[in-house]
């Protein structure tokens, strides 16, 4: 397997380039900001599809990951930092949940629900893009500790 995605021996845990989710979060910030500013449910639907791919297949299969892998990663130098795919995949599930709530709010003509749901998803994406702090990943780890 490539150094970006590798299977750990003896487990089902997959490692991904840790810089990829941060890059993806930057694109997500742009899309969610656009959805919020224009109140466009279609922009949120598009981002929701990306969240669904990341939640179901894994963040390494999203279109943003493809852009990172083909355009950004070849230009980066140094050792490839890796991380377990499960926390970012859980974070994609949380993003999908907020996208679905926002879409439902728009369809039900409840603009406040749309605004709140998109704002929460935007805040989480911004934390990841700007500060490399994945809120969904931290929630995943907290839930693991509670088990």
Bulk shape? globular
Share of helix, binned:
55-70%
How many domains? 1
**Strand order, largest beta sheet:** 1-2-3
Taking the alpha carbons of the first and last residues, their distance comes to 32 Å
Averaged pLDDT: 93
Q: Low-confidence stretches at least 5 residues in length (pLDDT < 50)? A: 1-10
Structural class: mainly alpha
Describe the structure.
The structure is a single chain. The protein is mainly α and 147 residues long. Helices cover 69% and strands 6% of the residues. It has 6 helices and 3 strands, in the order E-E-H-H-H-E-H-H-H. Helix 1 crosses helix 3, helix 1 runs antiparallel to helix 5 and helix 4 packs across helix 6. It is globular. The N terminus is likely disordered.
Topology summary:
Elements: E1 6-7, E2 14-17, H1 19-38, H2 41-56, H3 63-72, E3 82-84, H4 86-107, H5 111-131, H6 135-146
Antiparallel strand pairs: 1-2, 2-3
Provide tags for this entry.
globular, single chain, 147 residues, 69% helix, three-stranded antiparallel beta sheet, 6% strand, 3 strands, disordered N terminus, 6 helices, mainly alpha
């Amino acid at each position: 397997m490539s150094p970006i995605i590798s299977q750990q021996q003896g487990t089902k845990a997959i490692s991904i380039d840790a810089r990829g989710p941060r890059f993806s979060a930057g694109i997500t910030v742009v899309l969610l900001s656009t959805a919020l500013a224009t109140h466009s449910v279609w922009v949120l639907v598009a981002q929701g599809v990306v969240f669904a791919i990341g939640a179901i297949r894994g963040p390494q299969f999203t279109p943003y990951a493809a852009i990172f892998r083909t355009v950004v990663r070849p230009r980066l130098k140094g050792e490839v930092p890796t991380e377990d795919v499960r926390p970012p995949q859980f974070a994609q599930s949380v993003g999908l949940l907020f996208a679905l709530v926002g879409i439902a709010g728009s369809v039900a003509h409840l603009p406040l629900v749309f605004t709140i749901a998109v704002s929460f998803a935007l805040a989480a994406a911004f934390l990841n893009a700007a500060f490399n702090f994945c809120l969904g990943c931290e929630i995943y780890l907290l839930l693991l500790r509670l088990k």
